[in-house]
Amino acid sequence: MRSKNRATIDYEQCVAYYRAGRRIAGAAAIERYLTANPRTAERAERDAQHDLALAHRYDPVLNEPIPPRLLHGHDSSPASWLAGAGLVAMIGLSAAGGWWLRGLEFGAASPTAQTNTFGQQVARLSDRQPAVDAAARVAARPTPPDLSRAGYRFSGRRVVPTAGGQPLTAYDYRNNAGKHVTIYARPEPGAGRRTPDVISPSGVSLARWQAHGHDYALTGDLPPATLNELAEIAAQPTSQDPADQQTPAAPSVKMPQQTQAPAATVGQPVERTVTPRQQPASGL
Amino acid sequence: MIEAEIPHLRRYARALLRDREAADDLVQDTLERAWRKRHLWRPHGRLRGWLFRVLYRLYLDGHPAPTRDRDKLIALDAIALDPRDRAASNGLQLHCRDVLAAMDRLSPEHRAILMLAALEQPSYRDGARMLGIRVGTFRSRLSRARQQLNELMETDDYTSASAEARG
């Protein structure tokens, strides 16, 4: 370890030497060093075996197809994401997928276009029921949406941490039958008003809409059509918000496919468009 | 550019979490956070290093959150490497099982640095960038992690040998 070669050969080079079957650049110098340091040689060879075993197990992941949800968060064509090319070039992130540019073009996209951000977060929260920090507070909270017309009473507000993201505000509601729904909200500065759409990221149905500068998502153990009806009620303008009295066009309702998605594509928003009244109201 | 990095992120995440869906969730969160923090990325820097740094921080922050899921994943991993399947497994797979079993007893930081070294084979400098730590810290942490792993595996070997002797 105190040989002259120590200054130029580090331990990881020794590991790489064994890992590569003793065929790497500078192998002669490394071999001389290891010959002079048999204990280091023994240790490096053992560590190389560990590394090889791990690589053998996980290298096949490199050849797996990339799930679309990691590439494309929406159906926009490449040409549309290139509309933001100026910003993309500025930050150096190329247009490898529409997903990256969802934020740039949100003004022109439907709420379903953001499935992989807010929608996916909510889907994961709904699916996994993470720990909730009831004591946490966020700076700006929207007024709880009103579901009283559907028979649901507001029962509490929580702040839900998300993995690496900003916390979401969760509003809980119950009706007399004991059914429970939750509306998640997060600030979305500059968001316009958008009518509800039902989407199903990761197989979890949720109805999304925007209002008052916030993204909303309603979830619950109810049929998608019911979730959408509840969301439409929750999204209706309140008397305190005259700006919202201008009701937008009739909502387009998107229903998730009822068939089970294959395991390799779980997590993808799978949906088909139908007219609102084709779905029977299933009882709120 | 980004697309070329995603397989590497997925491999690292899969190795850390040992579950396809959880790993892809982690990669997705990584890409989302990278997008939000894009102003912190220097165009002359290496994109992979930056993305790995983001993924590493998220991993340490608690991916995946539910302990019960983690238990389930470990159980499934054990099933996949049931002793009855040994005849069909080659030596490398069995060795990998032993390595992974020992790595489960290491700290997340040590697991992460060992996986990084095994899968990406970065230089000390690149590895330090990928984890957002100093080069000296990377070097010493990797050395300690390797040492601990070997100590644990030797202990396991001793325990197994003792059990066999008693049996």
Shape, per Cα inertia axes of chain A: rod-shaped
Q: Which topology of the largest domain in chain B does CATH recognise?
A: Rna Polymerase Sigma Factor, Chain: A
Question: What share of the residues of chain A does DSSP label as strand, in percent?
Answer: 15-25%
CATH architecture of the largest domain in chain B: Orthogonal Bundle
How far is the N terminus from the C terminus of chain A? 75 Å
Strand order of the largest sheet of chain A: 1-2-3-6-5-4
Radius of gyration of chain B: 18 Å
CATH class of the largest domain in chain B: Mainly Alpha
Structural class category of chain B:
mainly alpha
The best one-word shape of chain B is: globular
- What is the domain tally of chain A? 3
The chain-level structural class of chain A is: alpha+beta
Described by strand count, sense and barrel closure, the largest sheet of chain A is: 6 strands, antiparallel
Regarding quaternary structure, how should these chains be classified?
A: heterodimer
Helical content of chain A stands at: 25-40%
Most extensive chain-chain interface:
A-B, 51 and 57 residues
> Strand portion of chain B, in percent?
under 5%
Alpha carbon gyration radius of chain A: 27 Å
What is the first-to-last residue Cα distance of chain B?
Answer: 57 Å
Biased composition (Polar residues) (chain A): 236-262, 275-284
Transmembrane segments (chain A): 79-101
Region (Disordered) (chain A): 236-284
Organism (chain A): Salinisphaera hydrothermalis (strain C41B8)
Furnish the topology, listing elements before pairings.
The complex is a heterodimer of chains A (284) and B (167).
Chain A: H1 11-19, H2 27-36, H3 38-58, H4 68-71, H5 78-81, H6 85-91, H7 115-128, E1 153-162, E2 165-174, E3 180-187, E4 194-199, E5 206-211, E6 214-220, H8 224-234, E7 253-256, E8 271-274
Antiparallel strand pairs in A: 1-2, 2-3, 3-6, 4-5, 5-6, 7-8
Helix pairs in contact in A: 1-3
Chain B: H1 2-17, H2 20-36, H3 47-60, H4 67-80, H5 91-103, H6 108-120, H7 124-131, H8 135-166
Helix pairs in contact in B: 1-2, 1-3, 1-6, 2-3, 3-7, 5-8, 6-8, 7-8
